[in-house]
Amino acid sequence: MHKIPALYGVIGVSVALAAIPAGAQSGPDLLEQLKIMRQQLEEQRARVDELERQLRASGVAPPANTATAAAPSQLERMRGTGNLPAPQPDAPAQVQAGPLDAPPRLAVPFADPVYPGRLAPLRGTGGGGQAQAGNDAVGRPPAPKTPEVAPIFETPGVLTPRGKVVFEPSVQYGYSSSNRVALVGYTVIPALLIGLLDVREVKRNTTTATATFRYGFDNRLEFEAKIPYVYRSDSTVSRELFTGTAAERAFETSGKGIGDIELGWRYQLNDGGVDTPYYIAGLRFKSRTGRDPFEVVTDCQTRCVGQNVTGTGLPLDLPTGSGFYSVQPSVTWLLPSDPAIFFGGFSYTKNFKRGNVYRTVLNGSKELLGTVEPGDVFGFNFGMGLALNERASFSIGYDHNSVGRMHQNGLVIPGSVRVQLGTLLLGYSYRLKNNRTLSVSVGAGLTRDTPDVTLMVRMPFTF
């Protein structure tokens, strides 16, 4: 405080220089200006004396006779740090001490102060006063997460978070129809047929209710299990021409029961981001827990193939499973490109052959088929998802599967050809709650062997 007189002089000179107007050099105007300057100087001295008394009373500044070489005062320790002492809840507003050349500041009492203990962890994080989730360090980026889209394919694109369980009930309905014309005989001339003309119209309805469970081991790996329940019904209408009758024969059959249970694993390979794709590898195993197609009884009396065929070979009770074990590796990719998300994938399904396969006929006997190996399936799909708002999203995509030819005893079964299945899919998703989402997808068959329409409704719950 020994520098206060010098401060007085500086303030007086500054005020004098600022108050003297240009051209005021002599005369009564100069005396009047000096009088005004003297009054302003006295006011400045009074304000400095009042500030000095407040500092001494609060204990922040030492008395004037205290040596300046002593330990630094509280004012010196606080200067430049920006940390103010926490005010008391019921304390009145006080003038906070600062540098002498700065204007005084008011300390407004807060009932729940956020500084210094709560403000320091938020400094530089952009938290805006919100509590940080967990104990993550400041500035550490969150674990990368694949973006969510309305699911339209069988394999979803979003992994289950670590430690979370997802239960997803779903119902899928499929309808398909096909017409077959078989010419049994020979032609004498192109316009004349000698023999039988068999016309068949087949309509199939399949409803599958599935309970799916997923568990996230960490943010990159999840396990999945599917338990389906299948109900199928087929209607076949046939007419044999040139037999002397125009009556149509109807053949209806159905089947229901547990389908083939599936187990799967999926792993996120990389850390994607904006304009950087996410890659997810998957492996799925399908059992043959459903009713075997070779176990159901057909309408043949003694045999369904070869000579002396005694029936059409149609099953009297429809199977609910494929009858073969299979393994399917796959790779899925998602590319965020605001405001859309592009996604797709590739898969290959290996169906394992079975030996000593028999078919059951009406009289209870078994017809030996030998070793049967279904064709492998190569598939790919692609699509685009668009978020309509924070709750709703829309997706469109295309799914294609190429099914290979079936072999029996090492030879291609006569009439077996490679089948192409193409489906156009539309999907909608709406988040009802934080842990519940309703998704609906519709598929339209684009090839002759694909089901005409498929409809799936799913609602995953997260726990």
Question: What is this structure, in a nutshell?
Answer:
This protein has four helices and 20 strands. It has helices at residues 4-19, 28-58, 74-78, 119-122, and strands at 94-96, 105-107, 165-189, 192-216, 221-241, 249-258, 262-268, 278-286, 326-337, 340-351, 354-360, 366-373, 377-387, 392-403, 407-408, 411-412, 419-433, 436-445, 453-458, 461-462.
Order of strands across the main sheet: 3-4-5-7-8-9-10-13-14-17-18-19
What oligomerization state is this entry in?
Answer: single chain
Strand residue content:
35-45%
Which structural category do the helix and sheet elements fall into? mainly beta
Order of helices and strands: HHHEEHEEEEEEEEEEEEEEEEEE
* Percent range of helical residues: 10-25%
Uncertain segments are 64-72, 80-143
Distance between the termini: 67 Å
- Coarse morphology: elongated
Radius of gyration from the alpha-carbon trace, in angstroms: 42 Å
* Biggest sheet features: 12 strands, antiparallel, barrel
Mean pLDDT: 75
Helix count, DSSP H or I runs of 4 or more residues? 4
Instruction: Let me know the number of strands.
Output: 20
